Amino acid sequence: MAAAEPLNTGIGESVARVEDSRFLRGLGNYVDDIILPAQSYAAMVRSPHARATINGIDTASALASEGVLAVLTADDFSAFGGLPCGWQVHSKNGDPMTEPKHPILAEGAVRHVGDPVAVVVAETKAQARRAAGLVDVNYSELPAVVDLQAAAADGAELVHGDTPSNVCFDWELGDAAATDAAIAGAAHVTQLEL
Amino acid sequence: MSVNVSMTVNGKPVSAEVDDETLLVSFLRDHLRLTGTHVGCDTSQCGACTIHIDGNAVKSCTMLAAQADGCDVATIEGVSDGEILHPMQQAFKDNHGLQCGFCTPGMIMSALDIVKNNPTPSEQQVRDALEGNLCRCTGYTNIVRSILVGAKEMEAS
After folding, report:
1. CA of B124: how far to CAs of B46, B136, B144, in Å?
2. CA dihedral sign of residues B97, B102, B103, B108
3. In which band, very low, low, confident or very high, does the pLDDT at A3 lie, cut at 50, 70 and 90?
4. What 8-state DSSP symbol labels residue B12?
């Protein structure tokens, strides 16, 4: 059989990237670089607290601010569900993972610093940011758990009030007996809790 | 309140009336449409907005446009000769010193500043000097290699 001609498939050979020249010259045209006629801009209002109840959101000043087109909060998304988790994991006992609702914008409570509470849309970036600073969120701070072990401990504050614990799933993969045997026979064993 | 700013950008005089709170990076991107200078973090950590002011590398998200009044500003758009890449840009291309390309303009502008201050940097000196530029794709091995090769090419030419 004659030697096969190279197929130029890109498999097993270097491929010169066609996009590099424009990236290197500052001509990448990323999404943030695009300006279309009548384009508007969004700015997020985010939680400064690790955990808090939202008593109310006053959007009046933000709405009245120059250039503002809309101020959205969770109420505007009541027709929608939460953001779904794309990968379901079952616990080793077969239970489905605990999956509390992950709202598009915070509904009545925030659960981490940076949790999005409101979105301001305005004609310019500066107007959107300025108005985002005018959204007045009334919070009552709550105790927070801020590391994995504290969150998984018995009696921990529940990050989502409606779950039995903060544990999402208890999963394992592989051959436990073979792994134990390999560790038992190892010259050196290091233990690490993450 | 608006202010009048005038500066030289990539060799051309520019002048505009802008809001006094306009950041230099916004002036370059939104007013002059030079969008090669990127905003990665808005907090002076990532270095994607690095440009040169009067010959020195500066993070343009950290200063107001008004502060650059009268200055000589250079951005990534002024580095190549049209489609002919600068030796530093060519070194990044040849050494796969970029993947998504978002941090690249800032990397190139920092690299040129590194070489200006030290035409024959060691690998460690390049790594130290890149402290203010973050890449989230490739890690730094190829970027550092690119800068070392670029420095050699610039020294030779």
Report:
1. 20, 20, 9
2. positive
3. low
4. E
- Closest residue by Cα to residue A127 from A71, A69, A66, A72: A66
Encoded tokens for B104: 């690249």
pTM of full prediction above 0.90: no
Residue A44 has which token pair?
Answer: 């997020």
* Owner of token pair 């500052």: A26
Q: With contacts defined as CB-CB under 8 Å, which chain A residues touch B76?
A: 25-26
Residues in chain A: 194
d(CA B61, CA B42): 6
Residue B9 CB-half CA count within 13 A = 24
- A25 touches B: beta carbon within 8 Å: yes
CB contact under 8 A, B39 and A32: yes
**Alpha helix segments (H runs only) across A30-99:** 60-64
- CA dihedral for A136, A142, A146, A152, sign (positive or negative): negative
Question: What are the start-end ranges of the H helices in chain B?
Answer: 24-26, 87-94, 104-117, 123-129, 141-156
Q: Which residue has the tokens 């997020």?
A: A44
Please report the sign of the dihedral spanned by the C-alpha atoms of residue B83, residue B89, residue B95, residue B96. Answer: negative
Can you tell me the mean pLDDT for A141-147? 93
A82 phi and psi angles, rounded to 5 deg: -85, 180
Residue from the list B26, B80, B100 with its beta carbon closest to the beta carbon of A25: B80
Place of tokens 């544990």: A167
Q: Which of A14, A18, A20 to mutate to test the interface with B (most CBs of B within 10 A)?
A: A20
CA angle (A7, A11, A15) in 5-degree steps: 90
**ipTM associated with this complex:** 0.95
For B8-53, the pLDDT digits (tens) are 999 999 999 999 999 999 999 999 999 999 999 989 999 999 999 9
- Option in B37, B80, B101 nearest A19 (CB): B101
- Say how far apart CA B42 and CA B46 lie, in whole Å: 8
